[in-house]
Structures
1.
Amino acid sequence: MSEALKVLVLKGGRSAEREVSLNTGSQVAEALRTQGHCVVSVDAAAPDFIEQIKSHKADVVFICLHGRFGEDGTVQGLLELLGIPYVGSGVLASALAMDKVMSKHIYAHAGLPTPDYVVLRAGEPWSAEEITEFLGPKTVVKPANEGSAIGVTIAHTPTELPAAVEAAFEFDTNVLVEKFVEGVEGTVGVIGNDSLLALPMIEIVPEHEFYDYESKYVPGMSRHIIPARVSPEALVECERVALEAHRVLGCRGMSRSDTMIEPDGSVLLLETNTIPGMTSTSLLPDAARAAGIEFPDLCDRLVRLALA
């Protein structure tokens, strides 16, 4: 076993994904303890959480915060100022990946295939007719800066679009409207800083119409199929776009990119997560196990990458 470290697990926080974060943090802390590390946990919603971070004098922080004020570069900036190493991507990569609009711009600039989209901004006029003409009658509406499918709605027809946009604006001042893509949903995890390892692709089969909050976190509400039931060419392409998304966004440590494989085998990149879930129903741990990396080893490897 490698040298034991003092690891501070940062969990909870103030985002809409607080409960998921608490679950992730508890499971990561237990896994690291089995690896011999000394682990303390801090809730980022505590008024004195910054003082707690400073007082524990940890060797490394394992960020288990999802969504705003954790996955978006804010906590990463705090830890940079405090001079404490942390698991996962830095300030810029975290902010870019969290913002679905900015990450789409990066994908397009890098030549990565992604569904056509329109960006709506609060207070600015928009036309359902123009959006329908460009994207088609069925669309996916998302707040720019939320995770876990919070605030996401499928507008099946143009008449459903105004309500979907209004719901998304409850969470953000920028809203992404994407062309709806029929096909197989998959995800590819990536581990590493400079030398990258793509984990086996997982095919996601949700019980609901799409991979929503309940599908992600309630046991039995989705199936994770490995190997994915797609062509070898599609598997290779999904791996390629996940690796390239990790690189162009500037990620480090880990990421997980979601894709759609169309019936003709074409692959489209949806989004990249810099702090994927680490719960019993989460995708990255499932993919790691398929690659022969058990959950405690995965957590330990991510800590080592943070210190590399």
Note: The chain has three domains: 6-87, 95-113+182-307, 117-179.
2.
Amino acid sequence: MDEGLKSELQKQGVFATTLGEIYNWGRKNSVWPLSFGLACCAIEMIAASMARWDLARFGAEVFRPSPRQADLMIVAGTVTKKMAPQVVRLYNQMPEPKYVIAMGACAISGGPFKQGYNVLKGIDRYLPVDVHIPGCPPRPEALLHAFVTLQQKIAEQQLTGPNRPRHLRADAPSEFPVPAYGEHDLVPPSNPKVWQPAKMVR
């Protein structure tokens, strides 16, 4: 339908939509984040849910204490190699459809601790990240922007066809391998189905 005609009909109280739009509208306005934080970025995440910024305005009404009641994981802070298996295990316990926001430089690339032996250089080595938030730490407004970006991504998802999201594809994985503590590093060091190292061109 022409957007101009749709706008005119809405002014008269007539709303024309599709099943996919209604389905995605309901999902994007009821995203419930998982209640956990890893480092200082968690303070900014907590602030975003308080009265001044009020993340509940966008449908993230309450941070759920159980991964079985949440569909958004906000990885807020430094992911150490000791914590990485627990983060992946929590993600696996979340029901589909589920999403991941990597909040802060540490969650994206290791941040100022990148050269440390005990810090994971990005949670995207094990989990599929939907939105990245740069900064150290990013302000609550940045988290709000990332949340709106995720809502736009959800609203544009197709219910059918080759571009449909992971939870509508029977062949797509819902759980990812939990890394184990090896002799010198995590085993496996990354999930090859999610992350591939960049090719160096010299």
Note: The CA atoms of residues 51 and 170 lie 41 Å apart.
